[in-house]
Write a structure and sequence with these properties.
By secondary structure, the chain is mostly helical. Helix 1 packs parallel to helix 3 and helix 3 runs antiparallel to helix 4. The longest helix has 19 residues.
Length: 159
């Protein structure tokens, strides 16, 4: 479709994405923000694009805010859950990311193509959180207790 025949929002989104691809993040941020502030019903792609720019600029709280806004505007669309979860992972808040993914799984129909991907990300976060919380109990016990435990074991069991 020639650029003259595109609707204005699509044209502006295309320009903002072009700036992002050229790594002109400041201008891309301004364009995405302009789209969001100008139109009464801005598309999710504008929030997603602005969140991506915020990530590149290292402004994770702002990116998370856009991800949450995407979820609020379209609960049945997985994009917001993906973006919010990604930002939370970058902020090293994997347990909250797992919660966001879990919430998304409850909102999105199981036959949605994104459901499986969201399920995989949720499982990955849950496993990573479990690994981070796993602790060897012998490191927590006093040495005297550990020695008493080992006295009950036969020598081949010590190894």
């Amino acid at each position: 479709m020639p650029q003259e025949r595109q609707n204005p929002i699509a044209r502006e989104l295309e320009q903002a994405r072009g700036l992002y691809q050229k790594k002109d993040y400041i201008q891309a941020l301004a364009r995405f923000t302009n789209i969001i502030n100008t139109y009464a019903d801005p598309p999710l792609k504008a929030f997603d694009g602005r969140a991506a720019v915020h990530i590149k600029l290292g402004n994770h709280p702002a990116a998370l805010q856009d991800g949450k806004r995407m979820i609020h505007l379209a609960k049945k669309d997985a994009k917001g859950y993906f973006r919010a979860g990604q930002v939370l992972e970058l902020m090293d808040k994997k347990d909250i990311a797992a919660s966001i993914y879990e919430y998304g799984l409850r909102q999105i129909p199981a036959n949605d193509p994104s459901y499986q991907m969201l399920q995989g990300l949720h499982n990955k976060m849950v496993n990573e959180c479990a690994t981070l919380r796993a602790v060897d109990p012998l490191t927590r016990l006093p040495l005297e207790i550990v020695l008493q435990i080992f006295r009950y074991l036969k020598f081949p069991q010590h190894v």
